[in-house]
């Protein structure tokens, strides 16, 4: 078994939650998402991020608007929807329960 593969799968499982959380703080451009995720060592590439953002939009969890750019093409800025806020709240509850369960198990000798 390869530990790197397991680590990647663990990150992928949390990526949607982290992206929704970032977007919930305010409108965000894709490169800002990548930068914050990278700084948090949740390494992500555009080839992973764009399909995920499209799935979130199709599920009506996020929306976007085009903003003209002074340098280059228009930019797509993402924001969370009411449905997305509710979804994120449920994910946050699930995350808290998982952290608690994991700590309960891993803190035993």
TrEMBL record:
Q: Start and end of every Transcription regulator PadR N-terminal domain?
A: 19-89
Which SUPFAM superfamilies does the entry mention? Answer: Winged helix' DNA-binding domain
Gene3D superfamilies in the record, alphabetically?
Winged helix-like DNA-binding domain superfamily/Winged helix DNA-binding domain
List the protein's name.
PadR family transcriptional regulator
Pfam families registered for this protein in UniProt? PadR
* InterPro entries noted in UniProt: Metal_resp_DNA-bind_regulator (IPR052509), Tscrpt_reg_PadR_N (IPR005149), WH-like_DNA-bd_sf (IPR036388), WH_DNA-bd_sf (IPR036390)
């Amino acid at each position: 078994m390869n530990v790197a593969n397991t680590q990647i799968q663990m990150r992928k499982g949390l990526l949607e939650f982290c992206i929704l959380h970032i977007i919930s703080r305010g409108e965000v451009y894709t490169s800002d998402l990548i930068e914050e995720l990278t700084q948090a060592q949740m390494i992500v590439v555009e080839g992973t991020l764009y399909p995920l953002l499209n799935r979130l939009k199709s599920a009506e969890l996020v929306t976007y608007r085009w903003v003209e750019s002074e340098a280059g093409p228009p930019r797509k800025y993402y924001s969370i929807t009411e449905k997305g806020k509710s979804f994120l709240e449920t994910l946050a509850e699930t995350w808290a329960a998982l952290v608690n369960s994991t700590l309960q198990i891993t803190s035993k000798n």
